[in-house]
């Protein structure tokens, strides 16, 4: 194995309690990384902790909460403090899938607070250590929505366009360092994302998923993240776009 995963790196994943984040935690741990899994759902994080054993450290963390993020990172045990890999994955479109004029303003604000401000917050906390060690890889989870907008998701699409702009500019700012910056842009992934988008309406979430011939799995996305991380020094994967295709 090559790249930053080769040396027992420490990876912090936001939104590790389900879906893409949980799958990525498993894949990174399998490849020898030590994984700090973060999220708000203590129960689900505890389940992941049991799976990862000594390779995992779970902390409750809400990316919208500056004070809580500062305290959580300050409280990391010494062997876990030098974070080599940041996977900015936490995100949602809760209360979405409606035309803009019907969107709930509080839910829209939450999408921006989580998907954009939270992602920037986590990066700003962790980049200084990466720069001091001149070592690191930041992976931002965008979406097809980062470059291809569609109706009934104006604020979610805006949030993912923002992730894209941030990722591209951040990569330029890191150009004089050995820190790499990658964006992963999946199409539909079969996770709890759709259920939250439809405010817990399982039938509506199922109907949305069924309107596509197939979907990506969280493992598909996790493998693409690992591919970017496993590149040798001197190779930067800027962006990976994944789309589901018919599985024949
Ligand atoms: N599913 C798709 O079709 C799809 C497609 C393209 C991109 N994406 C992106 O992929 C990422 C992961 O989504 P997913 O599909 O894996 O959905 P998911 O299963 O619903 O997972 C979302 C994760 O984000 C965490 N999260 C939400 N708000 C948070 C907050 N304020 N602070 C900390 N963690 C928070 C959740 O953890 P807690 O609830 O425990 O906090 C959960 O672990 C998102 O950025 C999403 O936009 C998804």
TrEMBL record:
It comes from Leisingera daeponensis. Keywords: Oxidoreductase. Belongs to the short-chain dehydrogenases/reductases (SDR) family. It comes from the Bacteria. SMART domains: PKS_KR. The keyword Oxidoreductase applies. This is SDR family NAD(P)-dependent oxidoreductase. It holds the Pfam family adh_short.
